[in-house]
Amino acid sequence: MTHHITADRLVESAIKAVTEELFRDFDNTLRTLCDEEDDRKAVFRTLRYARIRLHVLCGYISKEETPESRTQIRFLHIVIGYIDTELEILNRYGDTYPLKPHAYKRCWTGAVVELVELIYALHEMKRIDNGEIAMNELAGFFGELFGIRLDARNLYDAYTDIKRRKGDSRTYFLDKLREHLNLRMQRDDEKEREQRR
Questions:
Q1: Which residues, including other chains, have CB under 8 Å from residue 33's CB and lie 6 or more apart?
Q2: Mean pLDDT in runs of 10 for the chain (197 residues)?
Q3: Distance CA 143, CA 115 (A)
Q4: C-alpha distances in Å from residue 63, one per residue of 58, 66, 147, 161
């Protein structure tokens, strides 16, 4: 899906972001560009051009010594930080496989973060292509397999959530998998013992 969010529109939205509500409008525009635009090269260019223009604008505004200009500079620095984060995600994870309509047979019915936990575990254990597959490609494969969009941002956000977990184990889903599989085998063992009697 192409939304044609230009650098001009992104900069315009960023310049207006001088309150929390207007900042959310900018954030929504940025997310729409990064999450829904199919052409990753166009996203990268738009982000880079917008960042350059905002950096130059910060230089001009900082020459003014008014409370309004200081507020605008503060928000522009936050905006530039958001853009830098998106650029880093693009650089780190690149492109994922685009989804092909109706190419999948099954549907993932768990939480996306659970699938991401499984993907990271398989990648870490080098169980797919002997680990010779990029994480974003692996996520794209599973996304295509289960008919969900697993782009670089979703993957990164979910992994960050997993890393933030507290407690003895941060792998909630993998722990549940192990527990449920062991319980199933115990039930099967009990059924076999009963059948022998």
A1: 3, 5, 10, 43, 46, 47
A2: 69 82 82 79 86 85 83 86 84 54 68 92 92 85 83 85 90 94 95 91
A3: 9
A4: 9, 9, 51, 40
DSSP letter, residue 64: S
Two structure tokens written together for 37: 């635009």
User: With contact defined as beta carbons under 8 Å apart, do 46 and 4 qualify?
Assistant: no
Q: Report the alpha-carbon distance of residue 19 to residue 191 in Å, rounded.
A: 64
DSSP characters over 143-192:
HHHHT----HHHHHHHHHHHHH--SS-S-HHHHHHHHHHHHHHHHHHHHH
pTM tops 0.90? no
- The token pair at 122 is 């398989």
Q: Quote the CA–CA distance of 117 and 173 in Å, as a whole number.
A: 7
Q: What share of the chain is helix, strand, coil (3-state, %, to 5)?
A: 70, 0, 30
Report d(CA 79, CA 82) in Å as an integer. 5
- Distance between CA atoms of residues 180 and 190, nearest Å: 15
